[in-house]
Amino acid sequence: MEKITVAKEIGTDVNQVEITSLNHIRGQKKVTDLLKVNLDAFFQSRQNGSLGVFGPCLLCGYSGTGKTLVAKALHAELGNLDLIETNGEMLSSSGELTSILLSATENSTLFIDECQGMNPRSQHILLTALSEKVIYVPKRGNSKNKRVIPLENFTLIMATTHEYFLQEALRNRMRIYARFEYYSLEDLVEIIRQRTFSLKWDIQSEQVLIEIAKRSKKTPRIALNRNLQQCWNVASAKGKNIISMNDVQEAFKLIQIDELGLDELERNYLRILNENGPAPLNVISSKLALPTQTIKGVLEPYLLQENLIQKNKCSHRELTSLGKDHIQNCQL
């Protein structure tokens, strides 16, 4: 009898893998433990005949730490049929938010990413929807008289990098408050290993996984979407289904990412301080040709956290010994 060989289907994109359970989430144990307890309590109450809803839930923490992934895993765990995804900026129009709330059913999960982008009026509408389970709509031609429209028991999950931009009353309506932290190197290695296994990408050695993880700024999004994908693209361009250490080194040289995960812009920031000594933010802003808010909100948080820079008594930025060693010895 002729032997039939089934070719394994190899993925091409890191986002082809769908997470459908909290058990698939690596790291963030405090978050997943909290959510699992609340899920168990919700399903237990359903068995006892309760018509309550899960949450509402607020996921907060650094960008790229997996809040959206966890939100989708929660949706899958709840077994809801309809996932409504939006973000705070899109809900700046109260009409858009009203339309979404009216369309949501008890089988809907409403996920609002970057919810701090909602304006005060939209936040107030959402607060009323949560606290009163109704929405007030002005009658046509008369803004003083309003119709009261009841809402169904939809599930609300919100994610934010700046929870204190939300109104205090809205924050306090969140029954589940989960805070995400940066990931350990070990957890990132396992996340990358898990994704390569799911995509059927072969890895030459354990050191390949470690090197990809080390340059990920402690966040899975960078580890997978930028680093792993680029390493695979380099290997794939050579007609290979295995990522070698040479592919990794070539990939990071192409995208100019150093051993700490810093890009060229971040290294330019460090070079300015290395060449000029302590400098005020406006001087750095001028030399980099970037707004001060971008520098404060995008470049500096990771550099400060990793102790590459610090602020002196005058709030001038200066290199630490670690930052000086890195920028003076960095090679790509």
Describe the model:
It is a single chain. By secondary structure, this protein is of the alpha/beta class. The chain has three domains: 28-180, Rossmann fold (3-Layer(aba) Sandwich), CATH 3.40.50.300; 185-254, Helicase, Ruva Protein, domain 3 (Orthogonal Bundle); 264-329, Orthogonal Bundle (Arc Repressor Mutant, subunit A), CATH 1.10.10.10. The chain is 47% helix and 16% strand. It is built from 13 helices and eleven strands. It has helices at 29-47, 67-78, 94-103, 120-132, 168-172, 185-199, 206-214, 220-237, 245-254, 264-276, 281-288, 292-305, 321-329; strands spanning 57-61, 82-87, 108-113, 134-139, 142-150, 155-160, 176-180, 202-203, 242-243, 309-311, 317-319. Strand 10 (309-311) and strand 11 form a beta hairpin. It is globular, with a radius of gyration of 24 Å.
